[in-house]
Amino acid sequence: MPHTIVTEVCEGVADCVDACPVACIHEGPGKNAKGTDWYWIDFATCIDCGICLQVCPVEGAILPEERPELQKTP
């Protein structure tokens, strides 16, 4: 099951983007409620490797399950 980036928790650090082996993490348009850049995971491409969870320094920004209601997807 793919992981989820919680849009309103993400702070746009983007360590996950470089770490992702399948390039399934993309920058979202505009800012989130916190006023920061945010990223989203393409559920169709994610291979559930968990590297994003390991490298993200923002607690609660990435969840280990698919939760589309918490992630804006452009």
TrEMBL record:
Domain called 4Fe-4S ferredoxin-type: residue spans: 1-30, 37-67
Keywords: 4Fe-4S, Electron transport, Iron, Iron-sulfur, Metal-binding, Transport
Pfam families, alphabetized: Fer4_7
The protein's required cofactors: [4Fe-4S] cluster
Function: Ferredoxins are iron-sulfur proteins that transfer electrons in a wide variety of metabolic reactions.
Descriptive protein name: Ferredoxin
